[in-house]
What we know:
By secondary structure, the chain is mainly α. It has a single domain (2-182), classed as de novo design (two linked rop proteins), CATH 1.20.1440.20. It is 78% helix and 0% strand. Helix 1 (2-62) runs parallel beside helix 3 (88-109) and helix 2 runs antiparallel to helix 3 (88-109). The chain is rod-shaped, with a radius of gyration of 25 Å. Mean pLDDT is 88; it is low at 181-190.
Amino acid sequence: MKSFLVGIGIVVAIAAIGFGWFISQRNGLIALDEDVNKAWSDVDTQLQRRSDLIPNLVSTVKGYAAHEDSVYNGIAEARSKLAGATTPAAKAEADAALTSSLGRLLAIAENYPELKANENFIRLQDELAGTENRIAVARKRYNEIVKRYNMAIRQFPGSLFAGSLGLSTREYFEPPEGHDAVVKAPKVEF
C-alpha cells in the first residue's frame, strides 16, 4: 500500500511539473507575441512622428522655393502611402519612397542660403534627424524581437503550441529589394 501511494505521488508530481511546463511555454509565446506588437507600435509611432514633421518642413521650404511643386506633390503622395500601409513590407516600401522624397526636399534647401539659415528650418531639420535616429533604433529593436519570436514558434517546444495559439511567423521591417540602388542620399555641393 505504501509503495502504491508513493507511485501515485510520483505520477501527480510529474503531471504537475508537466502542466507547469505547458503553462510556462504557452505564456512565453504569448508574451513574445505581445513584445512583437509593442515593438511594431514603437516603429509605427516614430514613422508617424516623422510624417507629422514633414508638413512644417515643407511649408518652410515652400516659402523660399515655391516653384518646386513636383517635390511637394511627391512628399504628399509618399506620406499618404505611408499612412495607408499596414504591413511591415508595405510600410518599408512607403518609408523608402518618403525618405527619397525628403532627400530631394533637403537638396532643394541647399540652393537657398537664407533658408538654410532660417531658425525654424534648422530646428525642423534637427527634429527630423533625431526622428530618423529613433526610427533606426525602433526598427532594429523590432527586427530583434521578431527574430526571437520567429525562432521561438518554429523551434521545439514552441512549435507544439504555436499553431493552437494561432501564432505564425512575422515579417521583418526591411527596405524593399533594390532600395539601396534606387534611393541614394542627395549630392550636396557648396
